[in-house]
What we know:
Blueprint: H1 2-7, E1 14-15, E2 18-19, H2 21-40, H3 43-51, H4 72-93, H5 98-114, H6 118-132, H7 147-158, H8 165-171, H9 176-187, H10 191-209, H11 214-221, H12 226-237, H13 241-248
Antiparallel strand pairs: 1-2
Helix pairs in contact: 2-3, 2-4, 4-5, 4-6, 5-6, 10-11, 11-12
Amino acid sequence: MKEHLQSDTPNxxxxxxxxxxxxxxxxxxxxxxxxQGIQLCDRDIIDEYEREGSLKFSDEKLNILNRVPNNKVxxxxxxxxxxxTLYSYAAEKGGLxxxxxxxxxxxxxxxxxxxxxxxxxNTIHSNxxxxxxxxxxxxxxxxxxxxxxxxxxxxxxxxxxxISMEEMAGKIHVHPSHLMRAFKxxxxxxxxxxxxxxxxxxxxxLILFSNLTMTEIAIMVGFSNSQYFSKLFxxxxxxxxxxxxxxxKK
Length: 250
């Protein structure tokens, strides 16, 4: 794979007059490789793409950061918004649920729009590629999974939804009381708390990379009560969401 990627590297096609048709074609081929890596959750392909320095968004030959005159941040935002759609589509083809694709896509669209610098946007892009290519959040063939594993998968794919224990148990074809007992025994915590921890994890990203209010973040990740969200966040992280934002923004 490495030999193939290196033979197609755009550096071979740079000329004095800007990017040649061959250069553009090589860039697009490498982007297709990245999309393939996201679809297959193949970190080798993704890492090879990310090591290719000429493919960074600051590539002077492509000049994409000057698409909006005198506003490189806006130019990069536009590019990342389009890439967000491409990555979401590739991930869905690879087994990421439609709900997850929608949630992740919306989340990163908000982060991108709220970013204030190129470095922040580059960090968001890196996180975006990592999350879309994460194999642990893809659909699993449920035939050989335990009841607890099925519950974990269901929570991962629906963590922000207001779904009752009865509904969840029905989806994985088990009695609610049996599900709760099995989950508590294996994971050492309740299903409700496990789901809330997943919501807190998602909230931390939005706190770091968006200017949404804490109420908006709470609702987006699945909490109907922002006060409860703040109370639980402090129990888990030791500080309130507002304090967490101040601490990480220093």
